[in-house]
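Memo to structure team: turn this sequence into C-alpha cells by end of day. - J.P.
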Amino acid sequence: MRHSDAVAVLLRELGHQLAALRREAGLTQENLGVLAGFSRSTVSVAEIGRQSHAREFWAACDKALNSGGVLTVGLDQIEAVREAEERAAARAAQEAREARALAAFTAAQHRGGVAAGVTAVQPCPHCGCRVAVLTTLIEQPSVPAAAGTGGTEC
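Reply from structure team:
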C-alpha cells in the first residue's frame, strides 16, 4: 500500500527511533528480532520505514527494548494521521459527487419538466457525514415506436 508523503516521513522517523533504541540497548537487528519474536529482516525493514508493521511488532519491540511504549505511541500517532487523511479524502470525494449531482439537477431544471425533492437524509458510506439524498424525476420526451415493433409507451 502506498502511503502519503506525511505518513512515509513518520514511518521513517519511527524506524530511526527503533534503530536508535536498539543501538542504545547494545543489540543487533538479529538480537532484537530474536527477543521480539520477529526476523532480522522485519526489524531491518521497520528501521528504514519501508513498511508499516502491525501493532504487535511495535509492542514486542517496546517490550524487548524496555522503552515504555514509545514505539506503539508513535505507531498510534501515524495511524491517526493516516485515518485523518482517509477521512479528508472521503469528504473531498463526497463533495465532488454532490457538486456533480447539483450540476446535473440544475441542468435538468433548465430543460423543464423536472420534479425533485429530498427523499432521505443518511450517513455517507465513505466519511459518515450526513448527506441529503435528492431524487430528480425528469420527464423524457416520448419516442415513437419503430414501425412494426409493437412498442408501447410507459
